[in-house]
Amino acid sequence: MQKLKQKILSEGRVIGNSVLKVDSFLNHQIDPKFMLEMGNELAARFAGEGITRILTVEASGIAVALTTGLSLGVPVVFAKKGRASTQNNNIYSARIYSFTRQEAVDIFVSDKFLGPRDTVLIVDDFLAHGEALRGLLELVDRAGARLAGAGIVIEKVFQGGGAALRERGVRIESLAAIKSMSEECVEFI
Ligand code: G4P
User: What domains can be seen in the chain, in order of their start residue?
Assistant: First the structure.
């Protein structure tokens, strides 16, 4: 998506060769109109797949998941992190490890909002090592739902998560795929 690449080049900042800060429109401040354009684009790429639910994980995936769900006209479910005391036992859970934060975290979804009748599109803001996506796939599996694929805003191809999951047969669509980056330049595929 050309406009996203341009926004990354003009507003993004690379920190230490592996972290891209895009706080001005994706991860801290949100540009609603642009978020809607990205949701429409992801929805168009998966049109005709019979998607019944969008699945993401809190927090930064929610905005683009919402606009994708709006475009497809289906509910959006976000996996929660940790486990609230108000949560009953009817949940699917998975453990993911965040390389960025260097910690393991449990994510979960209630069985009220994901089940065997669903065809799921996973949506997230970043794909790096692929841990979040792997955990979300596990939730889809546990729920007995069908996976249509994953729609990602920014894939950092050089961190390998996308390749490993595509090898497992997962269809992944990224709006911007970064081959390499440094403080001086960002190269897209
Ligand atoms: P992975 O899920 O693909 O394995 O990625 P990793 O463990 O490296 O990333 C953990 C968290 O950092 C995720 O957010 C992910 O979206 C975010 N992240 C990864 N790479 C970048 C990057 O280059 N720039 C920015 N801004 N974020 C990145 P999270 O821990 O789930 O937190 P949240 O921000 O969604 O709440």
Answer: 2-188 (3.40.50.2020)
